[in-house]
Amino acid sequence: MKPSKFDHKTIEAKWRDRWEKEKIYQPDLENAKKPFYNLMMFPYPSAEGLHVGNVYAFTGADVYGRFKRMEGNDVFEPIGLDGFGIHSENYALKIGKHPMDQAKISEKNFYRQLHMIGNSFDWSKTLETYDPDYYKWTQWIFVKLFKAGLAEKRKAPVNWCSSCKTVLADEQVISGECERCGSKVETKELEQWFFKITDYAERLLQDLKKIDWSEKVVVAQRNWIGKSEGLVLNFDTDMGSPVEVFTTRPDTFHGVTFIAISPHHPLLNSVKSLSKDALEYVEKSKVIRSTSSGQENQKSKMEEKKVTGVFSGHYAIHPITKKKLPIWIADYVLMDYGTGIVMGVPAHDLRDFAFAKKYRLPIREVIQSSKFKVQSLEEAYEGAGKLINSGEWNGWEMPSELEKVFDWLEEKGFGKRKTNYHLRDWLISRQRYWGVPIPMVYCKKDGWQSVPESDLPVLLPYFKDFKPLGTGVAPLAQDEEFVKTKCPKCGGQADRETDVCDTFLDSSWYFLRYPSVGFDTFIFDEKITRKWLPVTSYIGGAEHSVLHLLYSRFITKVLFDLKFLDFYEPFPKFRAHGLLIKDGGKMSKSKGNVVNPDEYIEKFGADTLRCYLMFLGPFSEGGDFRDSGIEGMHRFLKRVWVLVDNQLDLKSDKEFDPVRSSLAKVPKGTRVSDTSETSNGIEAKELNREMNRAVKEITSDLENLRYNTAIAHIMEYVNEMSKFIRSTSSGQERQKSKLHHKYIKTLLLLLAPFAPFLAEELWEMLQVSKVPKVSKGKRLAPPDTSGTLGTLDTLDTSSVHLHPWPSFDDNELIEENFVIVVQVNGKLRGSITIDRKQLTSDKAVEEKAKVNPKISKYIEGKQIKRVIYVKGKILNFVI
RNA sequence: GGGCAAGUGGCGGAAUGGUAUACGCGGUAGUCUCAAAAACUACUGGUCGCAAGGCCGUGUGGGUUCGACUCCCACUUUGCCCACCA
């Protein structure tokens, strides 16, 4: 037989086709015995196509899914497109197409690419968020929230991006800039739809303890929710009403030297006697957020920051000392956190310090510090210490006795305990076109009414003037046909809401829909949902820590409370993967270093790309994409091909399982003198050990997503096999020895999650070579739920991907000889080899080490104080 | 300013208290070839030495331990996330 060529293109095309025909990745959703919902974050098909970063993420998730399938689970791995939203709309605008037309083009391209990467997707259950069959239920969720009192339209200062011409959720503003375009975000007073996610703040925080997520994501989410416990303190003023401040540091109460109010505070509207300067200042602040000034901000220290303020002309009274405290209006005070008013303690707060320094306000120290920086106006002291200048609190140790201060103030009636959260309500409306229409109707008589559920979906019309207006009104407002409707309550003339939903609402529930795709009488099929949800394993990027992952948890909890779901966490297990970078930097369109997977799949094949990406580094850390390495991976797969292919050519009479032949009792008199076979047998025992070791290591690596080391172990196993073949082959005619087929089968099984095409092709070739002219037509058995698809010793004709994962035997890992490292005073000095069969005692090991010439020269004539022996590992003489 | 992660060969990385640098890339030499490519084989942390072998070596300084890349303390650098959160 002529050696065949590793032709990745033909092989991959063949199996893509076959797998789909045989439906091997479509579990029977109704009858599956061991449902395993393997989910990855679906992509937004905005631009030129699939990003290699997507391939990285999807491959990592798929490797895990394939492994779990081989472990006997009914793995469901769906894929879809998060196609609504500003991403997609901006791209359509850029290339001059209508978003609805462009969506179809992108969809085709994305699905083509997603077919190429070798994932075991169930292609019968795809979904797109812009499909009316899908967004009907997005609207349904909106209606349910509205009816539950969790959605409301209210006027509030909101984040406005003048470039994207829409409002943004708090989570989409990064350091005062638009997450999408980087423009400076302004504050505008607008009437907007909000979801009251803050009602769920405590549960969202507490339930983090009940889920198994990557630690950094839990931390990020906890910080974002930002719980802080403090006191609300009252100060009497000469403004007609007292003011309330929120503080987590009541211990610095005696250090208060001024009060600062946010310029956005409504209280200022009712105060009559504000100075002209103050009034002007308040007006000016209404227009723009005069705060963060971009990158400049990051470098400058607090002191140099451009905080501004103005004296209001009014005073507050310190409740204990009765001193007059000037009330300032200052832009460093945020309206939407705490009470919008703070007590100024310049000695012990960086921001108060900067403000006091700028406007020459008094600084009063109340915590003793060893440094003199406060007095010398260098910086505030925020550290620990004893209280001073604090009346009866003098000498209290902070922060250990902070609770005493809380109690004291509460008992005396100066304040009340209060818990604050950083989390704000979810601003859901967008003044754009390409999104889910908010299913609400405004009637002059009846106010806001939700669209009756039977009238859903409210279809997004194919509207030509879809460009954002920038006036705070969505483009759909121009479409009279869309706007004019009847009030669901009174039947009178009414107007539809023309804003659309934030894209993150689309993605906050898609995992609930996948198993029920095609089910059109309800948001999901209850029976199927009970069986398949919550999601068994979720893998995705950490960049969604406070966006998608938080919103999904919120929506799930709401649906749980409304009794639609019987679980309240959507993703009990989530793992974040790292970021794939290119030549040391982030991949981005502006840098022009975005890698398109197509060319690599074309040149090397999906198997090579998959293995290469997974080998780069730990999956949770990400990796650096460099062209040089991918060649090496291709070389490795070719070596696997050649190794297996050569084996197929060999005559079976050369075949032997040396382990068996060495273990089996050889009848006396028959070829006992054949030393070569005996020595082969010994070596094969080592190969057998290597195989067991590889299975053991790779199994645990896969479970922990350590794909880089799993691949390294496969390589080591292949190296061992090559070495063995070389050492047992007869040289002259280059006749290779044939291995027992379990070695090859195990290799293919281990390789299958990483290189699914190659493994499948070689698997088939192996079967065909064993079973001449039989069972050609019926190769791929339908998924066998009995779980006994064959063992390593029997023939089986089904897909390698449906074959049980190989097991290992710890007994096979024991070596006959083991090496003990000998140290003197912890320094490596030599090693001794012990035969396990000799049942050496600890003392004997020690004696053997002592007489070893390499070691004896270090201990000769010295007194040995101590001997440390770690069984089978190390021996240390302390002299 | 806060939080998190990480500093190991020429490079990506492995080793989580016990032989540091597995596996791969790159490099050097060789086999094959008219030649090249591919493939295969050997070597590849630094340094001294003809060699045997020695010494040094996981960001820096200290500590714990018979023994530290690994644990503790301090410092430092880099990356990521957040940031006027009172």
Which secondary structure elements does this structure contain, and how are they paired or packed?
Blueprint: H1 8-22, E1 35-40, H2 52-70, E2 74-76, E3 80-81, H3 86-95, H4 99-116, E4 127-128, H5 132-147, E5 151-161, E6 166-168, E7 173-174, E8 177-178, E9 185-195, H6 201-206, E10 212-213, H7 215-225, E11 228-237, E12 243-247, E13 258-261, H8 267-270, H9 276-287, H10 295-299, E14 309-317, E15 324-330, E16 341-344, H11 350-358, E17 385-386, E18 397-398, H12 402-411, E19 415-420, E20 426-427, E21 429-430, E22 440-443, E23 447-450, H13 480-483, E24 484-486, E25 493-496, E26 500-501, H14 503-506, H15 510-513, H16 526-532, E27 537-541, H17 548-561, E28 573-577, E29 579-582, E30 585-586, H18 597-604, H19 606-615, E31 622-625, H20 627-649, H21 658-663, H22 675-703, H23 707-728, H24 741-751, H25 756-770, E32 817-824, E33 827-835, H26 842-851, H27 853-859, E34 866-870, E35 874-878
Parallel strand pairs: 1-2, 1-27, 3-4, 10-28, 13-15, 27-28, 29-31, 32-35
Antiparallel strand pairs: 5-6, 5-9, 7-8, 9-20, 11-12, 11-14, 11-19, 13-16, 14-15, 17-18, 21-26, 22-23, 22-25, 24-25, 29-30, 32-33, 34-35
Helix pairs in contact: 1-25, 18-19, 19-20, 20-25, 22-23, 22-24, 23-24, 24-25
This protein binds one RNA strand of 86 nucleotides through helix 7, strand 12, strand 16, helix 11 and helix 20.
